[in-house]
Amino acid sequence: MDASVKERIDQMVQTNAIMVFMKGNKLMPQCGFSNNVVQILNILGVPFETFDVLADADIRQGIKDYSNWPTIPQVYVNGEFLGGSDILIELYQNGKLQEIVEVALAS
Q: What is the sign of the dihedral through the CA atoms of 65, 4, 32 and 36?
């Protein structure tokens, strides 16, 4: 991965408590999986930022290399990779996601 791409991703991940790399944005998700993530975070009522990977091919590939995770969306909480849509759904359903985001936003 190009150093400038890694630096851009680092910047987004480190400066936002909850960062979502997705297709589209939180106002207009462009795929069902991205929409699932946005809906869950909206239900929790937590602030989060998004980056539209469809608008930047370098970040679209770079985020996959950065996390060593092949799919999008990707969710980062306090600089740590949490997972994609399926993992977020599972964490939401078992109540752990609420705890994770509350801790992240409190720190």
A: positive
